[in-house]
């Protein structure tokens, strides 16, 4: 059944629609190849590499219009490592979470498992819906996901009204950052990883931190709490200020992310990126709403993500469509496994051409009629 051949005339130019790792621009890879002999395989403690870390940090600050006093901090391990870093280095005692998917749940688990922290409050919502934070006395750290990659639900980044003085807000922007709008003054830590909208490879975590968050990290460290060296946020802050990481980073990841940020900044920065993702979102949700067999999984249009679209199928086997697409070089449209729905998931990051999203819908229609 999967040997159906999609005509080349309707196929997207680039067949990568994965939500992470996501499409890497060929132009970025070519730039990397051009510098490879003087950059790859050279010391990360020397100027050549430090200059790229500096370019990456500058690029992020410009792209997100970083307010005065905020700092870009980075280290190895991706977002999953950052959850542990934040558990050891940012939560003072009591956290509150908005959990509405698999990624949010992982941070909750890290905090629940930490013997030195109090039991957190968790506001939950089922897949396809959103949960929200609410002021609660005694909570020193609030945490939410901007875009839940496992379900395609996105929420605005907003401070918790009525929260205790000095309480921090941590925003997981791993997949939302770079596709969805944000005013960084509305959060204390906006953290992401380079393999999503930043169109690079995985392995790093990147955090834009407010002065209050930086102060919290130093305060907790000074309190004498045991913090594993590799997860020490103060070390990450100090190393980042020196344009380096605590241990060896993937140099190509650093370079590709810096290159992508320069490209996005030249296109018009965050405003441009948000508009482009919104354009792709209008294409795919518009198609699904008109389709006789596809519907947006997220029923509330306000919560529908412009970073990652999830589309339910009825009467058509989504897994068979994903397999046939893959056989035709159009990859990674499979849904988040644990969600267990008859669904496709499509990344709408700014790297993806809106015209390719339109072409993808034509390919899905082509297969749905024939499978
Ligand atoms: C991909 C993703 C993560 C995990 O990122 P890693 O770098 O693989 O650890 C966390 N949160 C969200 C919202 C994500 O989309």
Please give a structural write-up:
The chain is α/β, with parallel strands linked by helices. It contains ten helices and twelve strands. It has helices at 26-39, 47-63, 78-89, 102-113, 211-222, 233-241, 251-267, 269-290, 318-327, 354-370, and strands at residues 71-76, 95-99, 121-124, 141-145, 147-148, 153-154, 168-172, 189-192, 204-209, 294-296, 308-313, 343-347. The strands form three sheets. It has a seven-stranded mixed β-sheet with strand order 1-9-8-7-4-2-3, with helices on both faces. A hairpin with a 4-residue loop joins β5 and β6. α1 (26-39) packs across α7 (251-267), α3 packs parallel to α4 and α7 crosses α8. The protein is globular, with a radius of gyration of 21 Å. The mean pLDDT is 97. Residues 20, 78-80, 103, 145, 149, 172, 174-175, 193, 196, 202 line the site of pyridoxal-5'-phosphate. The site of pyridoxal-5'-phosphate (PLP) has 13 residues, from α3.
């Amino acid at each position: 059944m999967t040997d159906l051949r999609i005509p080349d005339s309707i196929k997207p130019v680039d067949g990568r629609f994965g939500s992470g790792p996501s499409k890497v621009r060929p132009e970025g890879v070519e730039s990397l190849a051009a510098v490879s002999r003087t950059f790859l395989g050279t010391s990360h403690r020397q100027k050549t590499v430090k200059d790229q870390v500096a370019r990456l940090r500058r690029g992020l600050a410009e792209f997100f219009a970083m307010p005065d006093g905020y700092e870009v901090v980075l280290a190895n391990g991706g977002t999953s490592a950052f959850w542990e870093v934040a558990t050891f280095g940012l939560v003072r005692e009591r956290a509150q979470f908005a959990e509405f998917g698999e990624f949010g749940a992982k941070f909750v688990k890290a905090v629940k498992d930490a013997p030195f922290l109090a039991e957190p409050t968790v506001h939950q919502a089922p897949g396809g819906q959103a949960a929200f934070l609410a002021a609660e006395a005694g909570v020193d750290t609030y945490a939410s996901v901007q875009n839940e990659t496992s379900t395609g639900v996105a929420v605005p980044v907003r401070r918790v009204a009525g929260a205790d003085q000095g309480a921090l807000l941590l925003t997981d922007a791993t997949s939302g950052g770079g596709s969805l709008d944000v005013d960084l003054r509305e959060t204390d830590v906006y953290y992401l990883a380079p393999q999503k909208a930043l169109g690079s490879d995985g392995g790093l975590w990147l955090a834009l931190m407010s002065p209050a968050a930086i102060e919290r990290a130093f305060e907790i460290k000074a309190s004498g709490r045991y913090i594993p060296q590799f997860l020490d946020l103060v070390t990450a802050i100090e190393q980042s200020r020196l344009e380096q990481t605590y241990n060896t980073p993937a140099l190509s990841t650093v370079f590709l992310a810096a290159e992508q940020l320069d490209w996005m900044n030249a296109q018009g920065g965050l405003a441009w990126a948000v508009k482009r993702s919104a354009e792709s979102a209008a294409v795919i949700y518009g198609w699904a709403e008109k389709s006789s067999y596809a519907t947006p999984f997220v029923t509330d249009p306000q919560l529908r993500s412009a970073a990652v679209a999830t589309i339910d199928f009825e009467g058509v086997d989504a897994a068979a469509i994903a397999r046939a697409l893959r056989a035709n070089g159009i990859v990674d449209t499979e849904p988040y496994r644990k969600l267990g729905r008859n669904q496709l998931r499509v990344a709408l990051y700014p790297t993806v051409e809106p015209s390719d999203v339109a072409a993808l819908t034509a390919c899905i229609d082509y297969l749905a009629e024939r499978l």
